[in-house]
Amino acid sequence: MNIGRGIIGGALGGLVGALIWAGVSYFAGYEIGWIAWGVGGLVGLGCVWAGKGSGNLLGTAAVVIAVLSIIAGKYVTVEFSIRNEIGSEQGVLQSALANIQDDEVTISYLADEVIQEREAQGGNIQWPSGVNPDEATRQSDYPPAIWSGALSRWQVMSPGEREEYRDQLAQQIRVGVQAYFSDVSSVGFMNSFGAMDLLFFGLAVATAFKIASRGSAHDTKADAGTDTAQTETR
User: Fold this and answer.
1) What angle separates helix 103-120 from helix 144-155, to the nearest 10 degrees?
2) pLDDT by residue (tens digit) across 172-192?
3) Which long-range contacts (CB under 8 A, 24 or more apart) does 125-128 make?
């Protein structure tokens, strides 16, 4: 038995299993948890096949590889789910950067600044009926007095100052989008583990260890034959 090759074989099996799991989830549009069990099986088989044998040491290595493979597969699966729900980070960023080329959208950021200043002074903002303040980007979304104040600030800016302001907004948007996707990925990954996930996780680990530590009946007989031959030689 070659432990080094067994570990490499197990890693390859885990990689294939994780990719299959993520791919099926991507095309199906939702996660299929029981495939994680198969990942553990592929890890064990890869260890035995490449290592040309089995044993507890290889079984322990298979457990570690299976855990890492399942976590990787789970993470990629969650990322695919996020992409299906809200799009890619790059796509959202490009869309947001394109929006601020619209003067009305850019002025809405100035309107938000006016609102923040008034609220800091204890002022009460009366939003138009049916408007969600978090989604306001147009003149009709804001109270007339707020928009008037923002428009005044925009009109006194020179062309160079307007471009500089847009550059500042672009930087804020990049940071905001990156932070948003990072939070969504972290929360989504942690929340993706349910009772059934833990069950399949345990089955995958147990299967990987069982296969890699015991191998097949053929492997067991072969190992026994080798041991006998070595004993007779001695």
Assistant:
1) 120
2) 999 999 999 999 988 888 887
3) none
Does 178 share its domain with 98? yes
Same domain as 119, residue 161: yes
Out of 22-31, 152-161, 175-184, least confident range: 22-31
Whether residues 137 and 98 share a domain: the answer is yes
Q: In whole angstroms, what is the distance from residue 114 CA to residue 147 CA?
A: 9
Residues 180 and 220 occupy one common structural domain: no
The Cα angle at residue 96 between residues 94 and 100, in degrees rounded to 5: 115
- Please check whether residue 109 is in contact with residue 190, taking contact to mean a CB–CB distance below 8 angstroms: no
- CA distance linking residue 29 with residue 34, whole number of Å: 15
Q: Is the distance from CB of 120 to CB of 208 less than 8 angstroms?
A: no
Distant-in-sequence, close-in-space partners of 148: CB < 8 Å, separation ≥ 6: none
Question: Number of structural domains, the chain?
Answer: 2
Q: Specify burial of residue 205 (Cβ count, 10 A radius: 0-12, 13-18, 19+).
A: buried
Measured distance CA(54)–CA(193) in Å, rounded: 31
Q: Strand locations in 76-144, DSSP E?
A: none
Q: Which residue type occupies 4?
A: G
Angle, CA 161 vertex, CA 132 and CA 152 arms, to 5°: 50
